[in-house]
Task: inverse folding
């Protein structure tokens, strides 16, 4: 029996050690050596992450434990032969999860979770931000790590387990060990079970993330992707309704009229990642937005707008459906839900508009095609509609080509009304563009998109179509640049919104605190089109907009901002990570009420 106990304990310890060793490599890969991380932080990360490492190891020990338990009743049990396939499988999975988590973190700024599965149906696009060499090197590392791990576990395992005369006592002893293993998996004997938040130990987001076991993060997020109405139930239904009431008021009359026509032709340009960090007039990188800054003096400039989410698929739904963002799911990837959403295009079609959508990339990525068609876009143009020689960007067709295509399409339109939406793509990793004005690669890519926009608008001004045209420019999400501080602090989600065109009465600056989702109600309100079905969109120029605030989500967390300050809440740890200038319970409660209400709404669809 000693041999059996020794094997199980050594197997468990080996797995925990593998997870522990992964942490410093994760930190070093993600530039911990060049940042404000001391050598003691490495030990703190390993120590605080130990509980989740042990829980994950406990899950992996479950099958070998059952094999050993059964072996008690056999004369000679071939343990190695029974488990060799299992070793190969878990070694490969551990290697893949570790390498993918380590490689994606610089781009996503959060630990590997179920979001990865949202992009697996379009691997070409998922890999578009990186080179072939980048991928091949990491695949090689996965194979090497998987081989070493499987070999080590194989050598650690006895080839055979001998017969024992103490079958009953041996079984009882193993069951006791199994009970201890269950406690480790559960995370102790307290009411709280194992969860990601238990390893958070400081205010440094990177160190907390480094302590999280990526396999545990992935598995725990997968288990929380259903039963939407049961998630984030912070309050009773009565208290939730009380807190939520009035945050998204019933739509009323406009307090300000921005347009000189109620049926303009409408072009919405959704600008990839073009947050305020790249807009000089909003405190961003100097020189990256020369044309946006110039054009902001000619149109209606919304200076205090915040993106609702952090990725294109989510921001697209927030923009065109005025629908709320979610911290752990993408509505675009759930057709049964996304097709129930209201949309700007759908409302305009009912008013006699023709609609179309232009994107230089793969329009099937993240189920975008399904969402766009169900939301009312009658014609879609994507990368496959351009010659192969024009698809020079890893994501598809660069913005200079698509802006020219858009111009040629619009200049030939003589009948309206029409609505076109255009999603840019050049200001995205790997930031390779045919433009070389700024020295830094990332700002230069944004400056390229800005240059394309400026040239497009200047050409449109020369056309007769300009008279009845409304151009709305806003980003799908913000951009974390420079990569300092919390990755989802308000300055990262701050975005510009600019309305241009001959349909605009006069230049104006609007500094009301608002969200990207508010475009739908604000635009439709200006057009005097009824829009009460947009539950999470507010007409910020309406008489009823008396309590300005902004709300957005990030990976399993949310932020609520109003005139009193900002509150950032992390659902993993159940803690407020940012509360400035002073803690405010009202901000926290309202943010929780919106989060709970949004999941209730999604569940009811």
Result:
């Amino acid at each position: 029996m000693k041999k059996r106990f020794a094997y199980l304990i050594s197997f468990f310890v080996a797995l925990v050690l593998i997870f522990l060793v992964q942490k410093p490599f994760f930190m070093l890969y993600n530039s911990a050596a060049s940042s404000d991380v001391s050598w003691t932080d490495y030990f703190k990360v390993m120590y605080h992450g130990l509980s989740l490492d042990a829980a994950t190891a406990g899950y992996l020990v479950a099958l070998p434990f059952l094999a050993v338990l059964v072996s008690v009743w056999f004369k000679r049990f071939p343990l190695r032969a029974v488990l060799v396939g299992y070793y190969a499988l878990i070694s490969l999975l551990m290697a893949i999860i570790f390498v993918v988590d380590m490689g994606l973190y610089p781009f996503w700024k959060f630990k590997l979770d179920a979001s990865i599965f949202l992009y697996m149906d379009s691997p070409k696009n998922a890999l578009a931000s990186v080179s072939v060499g980048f991928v091949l090197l990491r695949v090689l590392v996965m194979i090497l790590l998987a081989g070493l791990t499987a070999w080590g576990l194989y050598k650690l395992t006895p080839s055979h387990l001998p017969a024992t005369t103490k079958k009953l006592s041996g079984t009882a002893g193993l069951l006791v060990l199994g009970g201890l293993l269950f406690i480790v998996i559960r995370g102790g004997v307290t009411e709280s079970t194992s969860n990601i938040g238990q390893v958070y130990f400081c205010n440094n987001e990177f160190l907390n993330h480094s302590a999280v076991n990526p396999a545990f993060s992935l598995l725990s997020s997968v288990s929380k992707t259903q039963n939407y109405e049961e998630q984030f139930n912070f309050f009773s239904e009565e208290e939730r309704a009380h807190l939520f009431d009035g945050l998204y008021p019933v739509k009323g009359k406009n307090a300000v009229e921005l347009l000189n026509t109620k049926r303009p032709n409408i072009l919405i340009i959704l600008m990839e990642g073009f947050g305020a960090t790249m807009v000089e007039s909003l405190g961003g990188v100097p020189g990256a937005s020369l044309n946006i800054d110039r054009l902001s003096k000619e149109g209606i400039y919304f200076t205090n707008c915040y993106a609702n989410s952090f990725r294109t698929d989510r921001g697209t739904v927030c923009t065109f459906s005025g629908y709320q963002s979610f911290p752990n799911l993408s509505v675009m990837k759930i057709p049964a839900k996304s097709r129930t959403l209201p949309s700007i295009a759908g409302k305009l079609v009912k008013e006699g508009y023709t609609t179309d959508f232009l994107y230089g990339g793969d329009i099937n990525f993240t189920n975008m095609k399904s969402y766009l068609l169900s939301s009312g876009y009658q014609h879609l143009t994507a990368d496959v509609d351009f010659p192969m020689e024009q698809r020079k960007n890893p994501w598809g067709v660069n913005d200079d080509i698509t802006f020219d295509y858009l111009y040629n399409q619009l200049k030939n339109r003589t009948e309206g009304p029409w609505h076109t939406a255009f999603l840019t793509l050049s200001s995205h990793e790997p930031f390779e563009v045919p433009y070389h004005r700024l020295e830094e690669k990332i700002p230069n890519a944004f400056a390229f998109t800005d240059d394309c926009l400026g040239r497009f608008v200047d050409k449109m001004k020369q056309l007769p179509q300009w008279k009845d045209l409304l151009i709305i420019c806003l980003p799908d999400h913000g951009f974390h640049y420079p990569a300092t501080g919390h990755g989802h602090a308000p300055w990262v989600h701050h975005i510009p919104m600019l309305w241009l065109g001959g349909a605009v009465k006069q230049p104006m600056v609007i500094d009301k605190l608002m969200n990207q989702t508010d475009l739908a109600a604000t635009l439709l309100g200006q057009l005097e089109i009824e829009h009460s079905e947009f539950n999470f969109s507010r007409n910020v120029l309406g008489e009823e907009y008396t309590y300005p605030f902004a709300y957005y989500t990030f990976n399993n967390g949310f932020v609520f901002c109003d005139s009193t300050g900002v509150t950032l809440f992390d659902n993993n740890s159940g803690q407020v990570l940012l509360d400035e200038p002073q803690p405010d319970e009202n901000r926290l409660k309202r943010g929780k009420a919106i989060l709970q209400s949004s999941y209730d709404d999604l569940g009811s669809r």
User: Anything to note?
Assistant: The two ends are 56 Å apart (CA to CA). The first helix runs from residue 2 to 29. The first strand starts at residue 76 and ends at 77. The chain has 20 helices and 15 strands.
